[in-house]
Amino acid sequence: MEFTGLGIALIVLTILVLSTCFAGIKMVPQGFHFTVERFGRYTKTLLPGLNMIIPFVDRIGARISIMEQVLDVPRQEVITRDNATVSVDAVAFYQVLNAAHSAYQVSDLEYALMNLTMTNIRTVVGSMDLDELLSNRNIINEKLLRVVDEAAHPWGMKMTRIEIKDIQPPRDLVDAMARQMKAERDKRAQVLEAEGNRNANILRAEGLKQAQILEAEGKREAAYREAEGRERLAEAEAKATVMVSRAIAEGDLQAINYFVAQKYTEALTAIGSANNQKIIMMPLEASSIIGSISGIATIAKEVLSSEKKSATRQVLQSKSES
Question: What global pTM score does this model have?
Fold first, then answer.
């Protein structure tokens, strides 16, 4: 009987010891920190893994997640510096770095963080104009992150990012902005069109200028060529006149006939080329014309024979000298 009572006592004692040991063993999962309180006062923080505490003296106070968490900031109405009302919502990312501070420095961490973020959104957005607000979201995000992170630092947490999700101005203001944008685009289109027309006119003027310059140079060159031709023709006529005059002075009647026939032919050519003359009826003496032509032929023969004689004389002279 005594043995039975002793065995029961040992069994009870063993169970009590085992229960006490199991009560002192705490396993913390990855991504969490547990705070330990001894008689209601914080003593230490348990890290992920297997930890030991004093049973019935220490207890687990708060289970804090140290993973990065997302906080959805609800939409709110904000008045900008130029008295425009806009609706703004955001999203915040934070991470607990000190489990004891986040557990004992603030009663409701998420609620406090949400109100802190909303208050600073009103402060930052209210200090900017609407145009600046819509075009500088990065600046707003940087200001919010800096201010909120500084304010939440005593709570043992780190603000990693704050992003403005949407900014919605009133409908009438959106319509006014659309009209303004359309007017600006129309203005730029008109300016570009005017610049295009101006450039086109300038190019056309330059092309006309170059064409006129080239035409003037062509006319100048043609006039120069024509003058040179007239000069050469005048020289030829002068030489022919000198030759005929010399032949006349020497008493050659064929030369006189040549000169008269030339002038006679030129006069007939001028009469025949007139536009108001279609039929010419005038007495012509064929014998005189034929005589004139024969005179021209005789002069040509005499010139050729004289040239042959002079050439023969030069050959004989060169042979005698050799």
Answer: 0.53
Give the pLDDT mean for 103-121: 91
Question: Per mean pLDDT, which of 5-14, 78-87, 312-321 is the most reliable?
Answer: 78-87
pLDDT above 70 (res 266): no
- CA 106 to chain CA centroid, Å, is 54
Residue, of 229 and 273, whose pLDDT is higher: 229
Q: How far apart are CA 191 and CA 1, in angstroms?
A: 114
**Helix or strand holding residue 88 (H, E):** strand 85-96
Q: What angle separates helix 109-126 from helix 137-152, to the nearest 10 degrees?
A: 140
Q: How far apart are CA 28 and CA 99, in angstroms?
A: 13
Check the CA dihedral 250-253-254-258 and report its sign. positive
Structure token pair of residue 276: 């108001």
| Integer Cα distance of 79 and 88 in angstroms | 10
What is the CB neighbour count within 10 angstroms for residue 227? 10
Sheet holding 58-65, edge to edge: 41-46, 32-38, 58-65
- Measured distance CA(306)–CA(316) in Å, rounded: 15
Report the alpha-carbon distance of residue 166 to residue 174 in Å, rounded: 14
pLDDT, averaged across the chain: 79
